[in-house]
From TrEMBL:
CDD domains with a match to the protein in the record: NAT_SF
InterPro entries linked: Acyl_CoA_acyltransferase, GNAT_dom, GNAT_N_AcTrfase_prd
Top-level division of the source organism's lineage: Bacteria
EC identifiers of the protein: 2.3.1.-
Entry keyword set: Acyltransferase, Transferase
Entry protein name: GNAT family N-acetyltransferase
A GO molecular-function descriptor: acyltransferase activity
First-level EC class: transferase
Domain N-acetyltransferase: 7-164
Pfam families per UniProt: Acetyltransf_1 (PF00583)
Length: 251
């Protein structure tokens, strides 16, 4: 395996690099190329019009890729939206995801964006920890069936590009698999248990847990809370921490 020092991140440009990035994207997500593919011409247009396309290379091989574009919500808040970030399986756990986000951050700031948003699966707890604790983003909202198909529930996070840093973990209750999807309250705070390891797509267990997690997260975030932590608390369980949104809309 290559040494960490051989990994180099850079902005992507040119048809060859974008085709390589598209191939990595399709392979890592196990998409069927004829149904879900990434158009390099579209990505090139995104790059030129408020977006980002960045990669991490091991020598001349792309092993990580992320892209995003300029976004605006219904409240006319502008942000950089990170649509996808992928890392080759054999390179995961080596800090490439963080490097991709930092590269995107630089591009977003150059376009004048001070915040970045993206969506992630609430049942992928390791991503929750990375987004909320490693980067210091906050979970703003919950979106059932975000991509208009089953099993695509998503948490929307926002990352303050001008000041967010790694968040110190809060003391958390020890929950178990019996608490998956349940809300455990602690004064004004609320903890939601989820599987530490993501249940397989299409499994009965995933369907059951997803339903309970959906109800809890949707209710808490609609009530004006934000997510600030995702922590491992036992062998099989992680927890999200929801706290009241601070005045001004940010936590």
């Amino acid at each position: 395996m290559a040494h960490q020092s051989s990994l180099v991140g850079r902005r992507l440009a040119g048809a060859d690099e974008l085709h390589e990035a598209a191939e990595l994207y399709t392979r890592v997500f196990r998409y069927e190329p004829k149904r879900v593919n990434l158009n390099p011409l579209l990505v090139q247009a995104i790059i030129r019009n408020g977006g980002s396309a960045v990669g991490v290379y091991d020598d001349d091989r792309i092993v990580g890729f992320a892209y995003g574009f300029a976004g605006r919500d219904r409240d006319r808040v502008d942000f950089h939206y990170s649509q996808a970030a992928v890392v080759a399986p054999e390179y995961q756990g080596r800090g490439i995801g963080r490097l991709l986000k930092l590269l995107q951050r630089d591009v977003a700031l150059e376009w004048g964006h001070e915040r970045m948003r993206w969506a992630f699966d609430p049942l992928v707890a390791r991503n929750g920890h990375f987004n909320l604790n490693t980067l210091g983003a906050v979970g703003l909202g919950f979106h059932p069936d975000y991509y208009d198909r089953a099993d695509t529930d998503r948490i929307m996070v926002e990352w303050d590009l001008t000041g967010s840093t790694a968040r110190e973990a809060s003391p958390a209750p020890v929950l178990t698999s019996a608490d998956w999807g349940a809300i455990v309250r602690d004064e004004e705070r609320a903890w939601i248990g989820v599987p530490r390891h993501t249940p397989p797509l299409g499994s009965t267990e995933r369907e059951r847990v997803a339903s309970r997690v959906r109800a809890s997260l949707d209710g808490l975030l609609r009530a004006g809370n934000v997510l600030v932590d995702c922590l491992v608390v036992s062998e099989d369980t992680s927890v999200y921490l929801a706290v009241p949104r601070e005045p001004g809309g940010r936590s």
